[in-house]
Amino acid sequence: DPPFSDHLQEDELTPDQNGDFISSLPTAGFLSQYRGFWITTRSMQGVLSLQKHFQAQETDIQMMTPPKVGTTWLKAILFAIVNRKHNLDLQKHPLLTNNPHILVPYLDLHFYNQKEVPDLTFFPSPRLFSAHLPYTLLPTSVKHSTCKIVHLYRNPKDTFVSLWHFLKNNGRTTDSFEGTFDEFCQGVSSFGPYWDHVLNYWKESLEKPQKILCLRYEELKEQPSTHLKKIAEFLECPFSSEEETKGMINDILRLCSFDYLNKLEVNKSGTTHNMKTESLFRLGEVGDWVNYLTPQMSKKLDDIFKEKFHGTGLTC
Ligand code: A3P
């Protein structure tokens, strides 16, 4: 029998048994298959522990995104919106000296990847956390509390091209571009299948619009101030007319823009959670996929996503 077949549930595992459980999972390259999703193996310990131990607070804000859809950008935006009253002097803003992933930490990679259960109760409210977890893998307390979830998705072609560069730059694949593309189309990508990640949050957001906000990278790019207001309203900290008159929305957008963040010393070198920090800022544009995908590849993704998103109201 495989060691953890039907006999032992993951939530019964002791921390020492997690390693055995993780190595019993099917793998593909750097990924392990867990409950229908492909999770980066290095995140698995954190994911198991987070699922089991994380206790949501009513005022928490959880950013849940698939990788390469603009997570870094949204982290900067959410941090700036939520903490704007404490950071009126933009010349001293924490984003100037901290990578957005430090200000909005990954729960699995940052806190739950060790054996001890972290104490996160000392974080001032509202706590702003993130992970790449699909909806079905969220800790029960996140699903059941009144905490807010912000999800971001992006056109799958740009997501794939961004993922490819990221994997290459960080030595996370030995596969060819074509091989990685085929895997992506089969759903084998970190925290994928990508379409299931997007669809699950989308469907939940239709049922619980007060709890889950789904944003699209391309729309955020096209109408940034409209979306900033929408996010602030959703998080129940809307911009006052005084803040709007003072130009605070534009200030935050400028501070969080690709050009601005990309040029900061803190984002140019070093590593963040074992990722090259500079690899988080590549181009930051819509439509770069045309420079990489053949017409056949483009059609293949169109066909897959048209079928998966059919009748859902989602566009790819
Ligand atoms: P590209 O590779 O297409 O340039 P994630 O943060 O989820 O890893 O996503 C990375 C993608 O978001 C990269 O896309 C990156 O360049 C882009 N990005 C990073 N910061 C951004 C910003 N401030 N504004 C817009 N896009 C940004």
Automatic annotation (TrEMBL):
Domain spans labelled Sulfotransferase: 59-313
Family statement drawn from the similarity comment of this UniProt entry: Belongs to the sulfotransferase 1 family.
Superkingdom classification of source: Eukaryota
Location of region: Disordered: 1-18
A Gene Ontology molecular function term of the record: sulfotransferase activity
Pfam family, one: Sulfotransfer_1
Official protein name in the record: Sulfotransferase
Alphabetic keyword roster: Transferase
Name of the top EC class for this enzyme: transferase
